[in-house]
Amino acid sequence: MTILVTGATGNLGRLVIASLLERGTDPQSIVAGARDVTKAEGLGVRVARLDYTDPSSITAALDGVDSVLLISGSEVGQRVAQHEAVIDAAKQAGVTKFVYTSAPKATTSDLVLAPEHKATEELIQASGLPSVILRNNWYTENYAADLARAAETGVLAAGVGDGRVASASRRDFADAAAVVLLEDGHIGEVYELGGDVAWNYADLAAAIAEISGRDVTYQPLTADEQRAGLLAAGLDEGTAGFVVALDAGIGSGALADTDGTLARLIGRPTTPLVDGLRSIA
């Protein structure tokens, strides 16, 4: 079996490859797909140039590949076309397991990021590829900037209200992807993956306080207050609106659900919030 990991030089891709290797996978049976192959040096596996905007590079990267992990792209607004290029090439190559990192409840969520994931899931289903959908909740590492800012100011300000987030560390999600890629079965499954504990922003403030050694207070913001603050900080109207909408989605519970599926897949508890934050402090 040969596995292609797209986005292999990103934070998640690197951890997936490390997890595959730790599980005894032959390095020669792993292909790291990267737009800039020089960034893949040191991964310890085969490397192939893979540029979403160059279909020929995707076709070449898929040569001899049985399984694909499509790590969702980072370019919001362009991801559906990018993902479709990989899906089409994988179908043409006869891939027997196609794994995609999606978003929580992608097909029904009001989260501002969900539509591109919903569209991608629909393309995968229409393709007929034997697939597994990993609907990853938030990475705890997403809060690096909040951690640094709150540790400096003593204030964690956000527009999420009492919304909860079932985050886990990237390593937890990477291990789940590796398990699904290596184990028989899983085809046809849609896994909602989240941390064992859904925490709120008061909990996040307390965790930052524990790490930083200073008092940290959570300051809830209205949408108007948050937008004004973001604009004052130099964000453009579109970006500020995106952030406000994202927090509103969190406030409405888009990231709150957790049922233990991630822990069951990886065979251990997920990384606690404070431990995940401490690793990036």
From TrEMBL:
This is NAD(P)H dehydrogenase (Quinone). Keywords: Oxidoreductase. GO terms for molecular function: NAD(P)H dehydrogenase (quinone) activity. SUPFAM superfamilies: NAD(P)-binding Rossmann-fold domains. It comes from Microbacterium phyllosphaerae. InterPro entries: NAD(P)-bd_dom, NAD(P)-bd_dom_sf, NmrA-type_oxidoreductase. It holds the Pfam family NAD_binding_10. It comes from the Bacteria. Its EC number is 1.6.5.2. Residues 7-181 form the NAD(P)-binding domain.
